[in-house]
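Whiteboard transcription, Tuesday session. T.W. wrote the structure tokens on the left side:
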């Protein structure tokens, strides 16, 4: 499933259609074709793992799941689940799910690291109040707290912050927690360029690696979230 930085890359590719009017909309998984056709794309934004298409009076959210993709002015041999035509140009989405939401739908951009409205202290407070007794390695995949954060970012930021994923949230020192949240913000944004260069996964420190600077990278599956976890135990401290 694409993580938040990948969705930002998608957004950058699709922003060329901002201000353009949809001449036709289709797709086998698109019950909103009549509402979309004839409407102008005001903006293309993201929230977590969602692509947001703003049509002024409503939003269309696009979720890519495990196998979703899209092509611009190209087609696959399979049917599109969602399509947008702009005269001679078109976008074909495959294996995606879409929803239509009213513009007043609350996406809390203050916990979205890709938003200019992001507030680190708000995330920290929310994390401690609601998930203080949970393991940090589990909570990092909770989309209510960390929209867009996936398993690659989870493993990398914990390593870079020298925090073991089995650490209890409320036991992590305040300064160290702030460091982790800042690392999440910086790493997530830096990942966009690495994805565009197609070197994101290959440039990782511990994700799917066997060793780091002659230190063994321990691989195991976190029991609660069932996700692969990579740890350098001599570097990452358990709190």
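and on the right, the sequence the group agreed on:
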């Amino acid at each position: 499933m694409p993580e938040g930085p990948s969705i930002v890359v998608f957004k950058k590719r699709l922003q060329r259609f901002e201000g353009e009017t949809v001449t036709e909309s289709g797709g086998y998984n698109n019950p909103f074709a009549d509402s979309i056709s004839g409407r102008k794309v005001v903006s293309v934004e993201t929230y977590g793992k969602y692509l947001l298409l703003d049509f002024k009076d409503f939003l269309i959210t696009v979720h890519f799941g495990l196998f979703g993709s899209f092509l611009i002015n190209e087609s696959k041999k399979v049917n599109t689940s969602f399509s947008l035509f702009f005269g001679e140009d078109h976008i074909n989405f495959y294996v995606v799910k879409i929803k239509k939401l009213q513009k007043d739908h609350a996406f809390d951009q203050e916990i979205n690291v890709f938003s200019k409205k992001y507030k680190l202290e708000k995330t920290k407070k929310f994390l401690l109040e609601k998930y203080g007794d949970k393991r940090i390695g589990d909570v990092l995949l909770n989309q209510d707290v960390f929209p867009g954060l996936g398993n690659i970012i989870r493993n990398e930021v914990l390593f870079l912050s020298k925090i073991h994923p089995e650490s209890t949230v409320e036991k992590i020192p305040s300064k160290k927690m702030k460091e982790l949240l800042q690392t999440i913000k910086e790493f997530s944004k830096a990942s966009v360029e690495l994805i565009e260069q197609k070197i994101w996964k290959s440039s990782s420190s511990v994700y799917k690696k066997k060793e780091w600077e002659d230190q063994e990278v321990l691989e195991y599956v976190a029991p609660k979230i069932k996700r692969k976890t990579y740890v350098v135990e001599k570097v990452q401290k358990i709190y």
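Someone added at the bottom: The chain has two domains: 4-102, 109-231.
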